[in-house]
């Protein structure tokens, strides 16, 4: 049986208690803890590494979206909100689901069934008591990216390229190129090295999204990504790239 390790981040004690009572009716969920604000929630999530997050959107000081932005690895997220406009907006953030307060038992059960069904159908989603919780992110893990008013929850495997832009890093996925305030070195520490390759000082590529490899000047290689970007690999990194791909 799949076990979902869950945490609650919600500023209302009444709402937290309501969620805990609903969780008790589902043996598939193991509640690891609860927090009443974003900073405590951030600490709790990093300590417990949950599979599932029940997250209030509208909290004082920092809201739920800011919490997601702080996390390197975002759990499956179910938003909880008392406001319809937030519920509608959550779909723009690729939330797994949302629950409108006061939470209906039937609606809650449907949401949990949806999580379990998705985990069962998708072999890349691994939810179990023995799941590895290492620092390096698995390809199926998702990160939260916020750029201005736009936000995304993106799987690591869908990111094609990271590129330095001043003090920021541009993230390429689908047709999007948002900026995040993290250094390339910080990002590289979390990426699986067998898939993400440091092409040069400015860029890291996802080798699963490479379309063509071209021999270039002075022993260098030029990479054409499936999305159309062309990346020049430094001479030293070209040697390592050939070695990694064994050609």
What does this structure look like?
The chain is an alpha/beta fold. It folds into two domains: 4-121, Rossmann fold (3-Layer(aba) Sandwich), CATH 3.40.50; 154-245, LytTr DNA-binding domain (OB fold (Dihydrolipoamide Acetyltransferase, E2P)), CATH 2.40.50.1020. It is 29% helix and 31% strand. It contains seven helices and 15 strands. The chain has helices at residues 13-24, 38-48, 64-70, 84-90, 105-121, 184-190, 235-245; strands spanning 4-9, 29-35, 52-56, 76-81, 97-100, 142-147, 150-155, 159-165, 168-173, 179-180, 196-198, 203-206, 210-215, 221-225, 230-233. It has a five-stranded parallel β-sheet with strand order 2-1-3-4-5, sandwiched between helices. Strand 9 (168-173) and strand 10 (179-180) form a beta hairpin. Helix 2 (38-48) crosses helix 3. The longest helix has 17 residues, at 105-121. It is elongated, with a radius of gyration of 20 Å. The protein starts with a strand and ends with a helix. The model is unreliable at 123-133 (pLDDT under 50).
Set down the secondary structure blueprint.
Elements: E1 4-9, H1 13-24, E2 29-35, H2 38-48, E3 52-56, H3 64-70, E4 76-81, H4 84-90, E5 97-100, H5 105-121, E6 142-147, E7 150-155, E8 159-165, E9 168-173, E10 179-180, H6 184-190, E11 196-198, E12 203-206, E13 210-215, E14 221-225, E15 230-233, H7 235-245
Parallel strand pairs: 1-2, 1-3, 3-4, 4-5
Antiparallel strand pairs: 6-7, 8-9, 8-12, 9-10, 11-12, 13-14, 14-15
Helix pairs in contact: 2-3
């Amino acid at each position: 049986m799949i076990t979902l390790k869950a945490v609650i981040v919600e500023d209302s004690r009444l709402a937290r208690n309501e969620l805990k009572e609903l969780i008790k009716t589902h043996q598939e969920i193991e509640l690891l803890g609860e927090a009443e604000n974003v900073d405590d929630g951030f600490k709790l999530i990093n300590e417990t590494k949950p599979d599932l997050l029940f997250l209030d959107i509208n909290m004082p000081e920092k809201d739920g979206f800011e919490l997601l932005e702080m996390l390197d690895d975002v759990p499956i997220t179910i938003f909880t909100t008392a406001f319809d406009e937030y519920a509608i907006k959550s779909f723009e953030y690729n939330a797994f689901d949302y629950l409108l307060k006061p939470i209906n038992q039937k609606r809650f059960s449907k949401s949990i069934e949806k999580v379990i069904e998705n985990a069962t159908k998708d072999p890349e989603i691994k939810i179990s008591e023995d799941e590895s919780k290492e620092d390096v992110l698995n390809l199926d893990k998702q990160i939260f990216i916020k750029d201005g008013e736009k936000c995304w929850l993106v799987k690591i495997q869908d990111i094609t390229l990271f590129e330095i832009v001043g003090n920021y890093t541009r993230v390429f996925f689908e047709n999007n190129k948002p900026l995040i305030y993290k250094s390339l070195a910080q990002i590289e520490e979390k990426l699986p090295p067998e898939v993400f390759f440091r092409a040069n000082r400015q860029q890291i590529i996802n080798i699963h999204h490479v379309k063509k490899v071209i021999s270039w000047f002075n022993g260098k290689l030029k990479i054409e990504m499936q999305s159309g970007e062309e990346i020049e690999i430094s001479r030293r990194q070209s040697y390592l790239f050939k070695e990694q791909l064994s050609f």
